[in-house]
Write a structure and sequence with these properties.
The chain has a seven-stranded parallel beta sheet with strand order 3-2-1-4-5-6-7, sandwiched between helices. 44% of the residues lie in helices and 14% in strands. It is built from eight helices and seven strands; from the N terminus they run E-H-E-H-E-H-E-H-E-H-E-H-E-H-H. The mean pLDDT is 96. It has a single domain, classed as 3-Layer(aba) Sandwich (Rossmann fold), CATH 3.40.50. Strand 1, helix 1 and strand 2 form a beta-alpha-beta unit. Helix 1 packs parallel to helix 2.
Length: 269
């Protein structure tokens, strides 16, 4: 029997991209999936596809940037389905370009959705996870949580914050003796979903397929792994950055194309 069979999983930003793919995969493994999106029709479309395949899905409207609406959303979900076992904070946006030429609203929206919305959702549903037999918080982060990302400064900032939040909360659970709640942080490089159209992949960093990333996420969640880093080169970033003098690391970033990878970004947000 699948580990996910009978679990209720809430996914933010599940109307497209890896969120939609995760919803389909989890439903195929027996989970009841709460498919949320900022456009209800997107959530309904994914849910219909899941039901056609014999899975269970509930579409719900959710905009995580509207922080004040999240407690009411939780209450509606509890009335409709009940508490969740797994929360996957997947909703996110990205804006690329020279810092001052990107509108301030876009910079602030990036932080609001990628960081503040994620924290607010985690706070709203933490009691659910604490009361579950095996609760799990999965935060979709980014490889940019480990490096500077020119032309995507607030995107990187939002992901650095997510990594710090996730790791701190994971260790807090240990310190409190909470052994039924796991926290997994997912840090992939660029994924081929359209969000990063136009980017130039750094050296040794191929564009990741959504299917590969989703497989890694579901495997790590099943086994309670703390960190998912794809591709393999991402696993060495922390070590390299810590070992090299800053001017040398800056030169590595420039020569490998990390520093210029977002320069030609024109993806969807």
């Amino acid at each position: 029997m699948s580990y996910y069979n009978g679990k209720r999983v809430l996914i933010t930003g599940a109307g497209s991209g890896i969120g939609a793919l995760m919803a389909r995969e989890l439903a195929s493994r027996g989970a009841e999936v709460i498919v949320t999106a900022r456009r209800i029709e997107a959530a309904r479309k994914v849910s219909r596809e899941i039901r056609k395949q014999g899975g269970r899905a509930i579409p719900m409207l959710l905009d995580v940037s509207d922080l004040d609406s999240i407690p009411a959303f939780r209450d509606r979900l509890h009335d409709k389905a009940g508490p969740v076992d797994i929360l996957i904070n997947n909703a996110g946006v990205v804006f690329g370009g020279e810092f001052e030429k990107v509108g301030l609203a876009e910079h602030l929206n990036t932080l609001q959705i990628n960081t503040m919305g994620l924290v607010a959702m985690s706070h709203a549903f933490m009691d659910d996870l604490l009361q579950a037999t095996r609760g799990h918080l999965v935060n979709i982060c980014s490889a940019s949580a480990f490096v500077a990302l020119p032309y995507g400064s607030t995107y990187a900032a939002s992901k650095w914050a997510v990594l710090g939040f996730s790791e701190s909360l994971r260790l807090e659970m240990k310190e409190r003796g909470v052994d039924n709640v796991a926290v997994t942080t997912v840090c992939p490089s660029y994924i081929d979903t359209g969000m990063f159209e136009g980017v130039r992949n750094p050296l040794f960093t191929p564009m990741l397929s959504p299917q590969k990333v989703v497989r890694s996420i579901l495997r790590a969640t099943k086994h309670g792994e703390a960190l998912v880093q794809e591709p393999m080169i991402v696993r060495s970033l922390d070590l390299l950055k810590g070992a090299l003098p800053r001017p040398v690391w800056d030169e590595v970033s420039l020569r490998t194309g990390v520093a210029s990878s977002m320069k030609s970004w024109k993806g969807k947000h």
